Amino acid sequence: MPRPAPLIEMRGISKSFGAVKANEAVDLSVAPGEILGLLGENGAGKTTLMNVLFGAYAPDAGEILVQGRPVTINSSADALAAGIGMVHQHFHLAPRLSVLENLLIGIPGKSGRIDRAGGLARLGEIGRQHGLTLDPDLPVSALSVGEQQRLEIVKALFRGARLLILDEPTAVLAPTEVDGLFSALRSMAAQGLGIIFISHKLNEVRALTHRCVVLRHGRVAGRVDAPASTTSSEMARLMCGHEIVPPARGPSTPGAAVLTLDDISTSRHSGMALRDVSLAVRAGEILGIAGVSGNGQRALAEVISGVRAPDAGRMTIAGKIVSRFSPREVQALGLGRIPEDRMTTGLVTNLPLADSMVLPRIGTDAFSRNGLLRPDAIRAFAEAQIKAYDIRCPGPMTRAGALSGGNLQKALLARELAFDPKVLIVSQPTRGLDIGAARFIHEKFLDMRAKGCGIIVLGEDLEELLMLCDRIAVMYEGRIVGTLASADATIARLGLMMTGAEGHG
Amino acid sequence: MFRLEARTNTPAWFNLALPLLAIGAALVLCSGLIALAGAGVIEAYGVMFSASLGDSYAITETLVRATPMIFTGLAVAVAFRAKFWNIGAEGQLLAGAVASCAVGAIPMPGPLAILLMAVAGAAAGAAVALVPATLRVKFRVDDVVSSLLLNSVIFYALMALIEGPWKDSFSGYPISPPIEDSANFPVLLEGTRLHLGVVAAFLAAPVIWFLVMRTTLGFRIRIIGENPEAARYGGIHVERVLISTALLSGALAGLAGVGEVGGVHFQVMSDISPGYGYSGIVVAMLARLNPLGVVPAALFLAAVMTGAEAMSRATGVPAFLSDVIQGTALLAMLVALLFTAYRIRRVGTAK
């Protein structure tokens, strides 16, 4: 089938940052009605390429054509004028303003007044066309993450985008929300819009896109014309340049319980409260906690990490009762923690990487004596971990924020595992990571399991949980509604329990 | 057409180049004002330079001027590292001056008096800084506003003291009684005002640098300033570190007041500080919050201040120019800081 003339064409795009070639001679085009998958590992140049298209960076070489005409895009305003809309990973919304007000930001009304009626009409129209309905008067702060993303998409369409770029849109969504997003994207494509879909998740790319471009080290490593009939492992090979084999979880003989929670309850401080949560993780075992986010996982992680004391219940780590619930106490008892949000609760992006790597243990003899830092020990530790975990960065004094997500996750893993924790609590361990980095993280967890560490993994990605965990408990509305051995668990059964449909399993 | 692009790293030489650039820009911008006042720019800056750095006496005067600003600059640099927005160094300085003057008026051997004056002044400054820090930790009160407004409270309390119960009965002016002669700081160089406090200030800078960069407290100060959430999860008591920072910052600002009383004025009057607390903010920003950088930054501002008076006498340009240079240098530095995060790139204009 001959493809219609491209909506957008990028020819020979190159962009360097210092010595790093982020993009090199990249060609890419999207036809009307086409959903193009843009694949690549972290650091392969996907985001840079899209930032060039959206006007955030000027390319060093190459040209951009919109409907056959060369254009210069110097700002997001230029991009919007050319009919290009982008939904970033981090949303650009004003939380205190309503849905409608967010839509109308930057849109001149008639004689200085806001065209509320016109905005409402357009919002309703877009909603009906693609199933993207939103309450116009709700403040953005009251919207779920999925609804905020919907608003970003509507915003782009509202401004007349004919090409929509979505940067890892499913990373923030629950499995049920992904279906809704996909049907909206298909409906938009059916009406002649072009879509660029950036993702790491190969099964999603295969289900949704018509064609794929795979980037590696800034260059086009391959093009896939029929993603649906191409296997995930073939695509993975294009992305990584080599075969990726999922790690196998061998049998293990769990030992004594290293973490127990008995009837832990919390007040409704922020988000869902915990109600009578009891669970136990044994040495050499990986316990998964599945659940749609917002069902108490955050409170559970906060209690176990020692940043929030429960109102009732008892917790033990390595057989000792946790009494004060401070991060220092649980850490001293042998708890390691890989946080859900690397940037906010894990690392200090503006300071050298080494500082983040020693942060939780700065007061211990390893890094300080009598209140004086041991700079050489800190540096040596960071350098050793950078080497051991193959963290890609110029050195321990690099600003942590300059590293990619996968490398930051490795750094967090390194800082916790270096001290042989008895229990490890992990939230969404591979969110936003590419296959290679995710694979590395999974292997490390299995290594720790073999060494007798008890691991508790909170997550929404059921495939990942089934692969990693020995047992999976399901959380719903602040309770554990059931626990299954992985051998008995299926995605369908877990999915049902996550909606609260099944009682104690 | 030019545009800004995010930088991935900041070269080390920026730390030196940016403040110099900002100072240069401020001097160029202010030369317009000098010309407007009807004086020769070269001549005016020439007088300024010779009166502040031209001979050994001028240099000692600049050093004496720089001393309180080194202390307030360190106070602000330490506080800002932790993102404790202490705009109250002025009030803390005044509190330090009052406390040290009260102690200095008690007859006792000189060395003991000087030691106790320093302790009292530092404690008074710390006590004042504790107020906005506690309000922030306990009630989430904005520390910029509370620390700034507290300056007026302290200033008028000081006025009430020296207009009323503490007024010097001999002079009849609204000034406090002088401290004991034995409590006067020793002069280091005969015929100048170079006093013991100057040496203390120059020693304080490396001590504070060591504290910020090489101790666990300093580490925690830096971490809570950049990411309090990560600090909390990492087992740092954020509130406790913030209070410690405030106490340290206030104590340093209090020491600025001690130096002025013990080494320069020997009593407290309403104009004991021409805004050294606020200048501390300019100093700290020019130093990019590096305690070692505070010394040259304070010396620059001190040179401008001493030079401006001589320039005013010689050329008729109002001495207020020194305030304008200070303000312009701060604004220029804030603009220059943009270049640590962004680079300017030339792009082709649209066809």
Automatic annotation (TrEMBL), chain B:
<dbReference type="InterPro" id="IPR001851">
    <property type="entry name" value="ABC_transp_permease"/>
</dbReference>
<dbReference type="GO" id="GO:0005886">
    <property type="term" value="C:plasma membrane"/>
</dbReference>
<keyword id="KW-0472">Membrane</keyword>
<dbReference type="GO" id="GO:0022857">
    <property type="term" value="F:transmembrane transporter activity"/>
</dbReference>
<feature type="transmembrane region" description="Helical">
    <location>
        <begin position="276"/>
        <end position="304"/>
    </location>
</feature>
<feature type="transmembrane region" description="Helical">
    <location>
        <begin position="194"/>
        <end position="212"/>
    </location>
</feature>
<keyword id="KW-0812">Transmembrane</keyword>
<feature type="transmembrane region" description="Helical">
    <location>
        <begin position="112"/>
        <end position="132"/>
    </location>
</feature>
<feature type="transmembrane region" description="Helical">
    <location>
        <begin position="144"/>
        <end position="162"/>
    </location>
</feature>
<feature type="transmembrane region" description="Helical">
    <location>
        <begin position="87"/>
        <end position="106"/>
    </location>
</feature>
<protein>
    <submittedName>
        <fullName>ABC transporter permease</fullName>
    </submittedName>
</protein>
<feature type="transmembrane region" description="Helical">
    <location>
        <begin position="62"/>
        <end position="80"/>
    </location>
</feature>
<keyword id="KW-1003">Cell membrane</keyword>
<feature type="transmembrane region" description="Helical">
    <location>
        <begin position="12"/>
        <end position="42"/>
    </location>
</feature>
<keyword id="KW-1133">Transmembrane helix</keyword>
<dbReference type="Pfam" id="PF02653">
    <property type="entry name" value="BPD_transp_2"/>
</dbReference>
<feature type="transmembrane region" description="Helical">
    <location>
        <begin position="324"/>
        <end position="342"/>
    </location>
</feature>
